[in-house]
Every structure is written in structure tokens, then in C-alpha cells.
Design a protein that fits this description.
This protein is mainly α. The protein has twelve helices and four strands; from the N terminus they run αααβααβααβααβααα. The protein is globular and about 45 Å long.
Amino acid sequence: MGNAQARKRIKAQDFHYLAKFTAFVTNELVEEYYNNLMDKYSDGKMEKDDFIKTFHLAFPSRPQEKLDKLAEELANKDGKISMANMLILFYLFCSGKMEDNLEHIFNLFDQDGNKVITIDELLNLMSVFIEIGEGKEHKVDLATVMAEMFQKGDADSNEKLELAEFKRGMLDHPVTSKILQIKTIDALLELM
């Protein structure tokens, strides 16, 4: 997911939501950190140290050694972590309701803002989501999971997922629903 696209899709309501359901104190603080990271990492890939610092601000009670291990697991071969991965983790770990978290994840990947997720947008989402839940070296067949999740959700068979269909597909598919249940770094590391 490109940085410019992400910047356009993150809205004030996302900052408000993350401030409310993480340890970030205010909307302004969330927005300031996010904007600083976006300015610093125009390609959308951040250094592990910045990921750790930002994650720790959002979830200060998470053990440092486990957070360090999570950063190692998420980092690519260049030692960078996708900002999309960080945002999805914020939504997975925050104390908001799962349905609301899914709405924010949906909006993050609705690239054109038309309130539906297309096959291409779902591919982008699933590649990030499965990597988080199964690790970089996962053996999950992305195409199969995506097709099954899409089929479970696309009730009107219009080849697009509206928000309610997206939620249904994510909650009803065994792989995605398992990932959505993760609320601790330990549980996430076990899957990776």
C-alpha cells in the first residue's frame, strides 16, 4: 500500500478511534506521530526502531522483549516494517469492538474510497493481513483464502464487498477469523 494512498485514506475519525482505544492520549498525538512517520518514510516502510517506539506508545503494557521479537518477525529483508502492517496491528490490538476494528481496516484498504473492496484491493489487504497472522514464510495459499473469504462475504455476487459483506467474510473464514482473535503479542508470535 503506497504512502500517498494511505495518507489520503487515514481520516480524523481513525485518529480519534485509535486515541480512544489505545494508550495514545489524544487524536492530535496519534495524528502527529502518523504524519511524522509518513514524512520520514515516503515509501510506507519504516525502521524497526520507529515501529517499536510507536507501538510502545500505543500499547505501553506490552513487554519490550516480545515487542522486539515481533518487530524482527515483521521486518522485511531490509529491516523495514510496512506502515500498513502497523496500522492493522493497532486495530487488532486496540480495545475497540471487533466489528468497529474491521470497519477501520476496510476503510484503510478501500483505495479509491468508493465504500467497496474490489478483488485488487482485497488482494492487497489479504497479503498484509495473512503476513501478520501467519508470518513472512507462511504456507497459506493467499489466492485460496482470498477467494473463499470473498465468496463467503459477497452475498449479492456483484464481485465487490460492501462493508457488511467484508465483515461477514472476515469473521466467517477460518484463517481470517483466527487472526482477528489475536489480542496479545504472544498469540501472534505463536502463529508466526
